[in-house]
Amino acid sequence: MVASPTSVLIDLEDETATRHLAEDVAAILAPGDVVALSGGLGAGKTTFARALLRAFFDDPQLEVPSPTFTLVQSYGGGRFEITHFDFYRLAAADEIDEIGFDDAVAEGAVLVEWPERAATRLPEHRLDLTFAIAGNGRTVAVAGEGPLLARFQRSRRIRWFLDGASWSGAVRRHLQGDASTRSYERIRAAGRKAVLMDWPPLSAELPGGRSRATYRATDVRPFIAVDVALREAGFSAPELYATDPDTGLLVMEDLGSEGVVADDGPIVERYRTAIAVLAEIHEHPRPADLPLPDGACHRLPAYRSEMLANELELFLDWYFPHAAGGPATPEERVAFETAWASLFGRLAGTETSWVLLDYHSPNLLWLPDREGIRRIGILDFQDAMIGPTAYDVASLAQDARVTVPVDVERVLVDHYLSLRRSVQPAFNAEAFLEAYAILAVQRAMRILGVFVRLAEHAGKPAYLRHIPRVRGYLARGLDHPVLSGLRVWYEKHRLL
């Protein structure tokens, strides 16, 4: 591949190379993207477009006719719609208005053959691929600017990583993204399958303060350290097949997609097994210093009361105005913080261990071919800390994404207590249950603030559908006698 500051020239020696390039583009497409395909007749534009569409929709038999005569062909059923245009028969650039080009860009991604017929009507921020015949193969010059070009360059870096990590020629399929900068793909090569994690290291420093965000992982190293520690302790975290910590790329075991919920509710047997995982973690001393394969060490930060208190600002800043119709006054804030100060004081001597933080249904998989607690596959633990053992139990037994009925919550908590007592007869269940109530309420309040912020600030209103569930959990937790003072404050402001 020959590179310049503005473009790259890629050799496509055969149709397989064209398919790989199409997969590299399909993996990073987002709504609003425009990919312009130029080149003479037979240069490979339609071959590339067909391979891209089949990769994006993960359908090798997808019928992809050339839109030369229809001018436009739309494809749905994936993460978003892709519209394939052919401008060869346009008489004037303004005709793109009549065939719905702008609407297609607004609603999904767009492929354009013969883009030069649209003159200057195409968006500036696009990816330009110019194909040419070269001997028995093809070449393609890739140019562009802005975020789409950066994503393409990152995707090519992934291809080089895979080719050099015993996954040469891997088939790539988008799996998911999450709320962070991470994204995931399923890959296949030579009869093997795996999951690729793409986590570009953060260059900007996180904001200061004592909130959890201050301690969030900024690259893949904490994930690697916690993953190795979990597997060495006998838990089912994904095996790591290849890592490149400097660029933030991992190839890891594919634990499948079978979860722990069904019909929008918990599968109790699987939740009980997930609770048993926590009991096993908490029954043994767990180190804060976790070694990395390169000899370095990752130290788990402490999840202290100061951080828990700081997180509650999300509730006051976002949920309180949403529910009460206006911001909290300085006096209301002081009363709230005073009530919590005494509660956090009661956590001072509580039992601590590894806290995986988001230990709930989206991050748990069911592995039926394994035995015992290894049937629970664990994901998304890069922000793990050392903190109160009750936190992860509350995270699962009051799952923010799935309604856990109160009787099932009791079953889960009782199962945890039984497992702990069977190993440690002197286990202080009363102290644990008090900590559980305090942390469940803290977590519910934080999540209410997060969901309102995502809805009102980040433009993600779907999160509001979870609020009634979390409010229900909050009401449960406030019934504990130790939380009576906070309950008075909450009821006074008519937030229940």
SSE layout and pairings?
Elements: E1 2-3, E2 7-12, H1 15-26, E3 34-38, H2 45-56, E4 72-75, E5 81-86, H3 101-107, E6 108-113, E7 127-134, E8 137-144, H4 146-163, E9 171-177, E10 183-189, E11 192-198, H5 221-232, E12 240-244, E13 249-252, E14 261-262, E15 265-266, H6 268-282, E16 289-291, E17 297-299, H7 305-311, H8 313-324, H9 330-346, E18 352-355, E19 364-366, E20 376-378, E21 385-388, H10 390-397, H11 406-423, H12 429-456, H13 467-477, H14 484-492
Parallel strand pairs: 3-6, 3-7, 5-6
Antiparallel strand pairs: 1-2, 2-8, 4-5, 7-8, 9-10, 10-11, 11-13, 12-13, 14-15, 16-17, 18-21, 19-20
Helix pairs in contact: 1-2, 6-10, 6-11, 7-9, 8-12, 10-12, 12-13
What is the terminal-to-terminal distance?
62 Å
Number of helical regions:
14
Classify the helix fraction into a percent range.
25-40%
- Please state the structural category: alpha+beta
Largest sheet: 8 strands, mixed
The CATH superfamily label of the largest domain reads Aminoglycoside phosphotransferase (APH), C-terminal lobe
CATH architecture of the largest domain: Alpha-Beta Complex
| Radius of gyration, whole Å | 26 Å
Beta-strand residue fraction: 15-25%
Output the CATH class name of the largest domain. Alpha Beta
Low-confidence stretches: 1-5, 204-210
Can you count the beta strands? 21
Shape: globular
Total discrete domains: 2
Strand order of the largest sheet: 1-2-8-7-3-6-5-4
Write down the CATH topology of the largest domain: Aminoglycoside 3'-phosphotransferase, Chain: A, domain 2
Average of pLDDT: 91
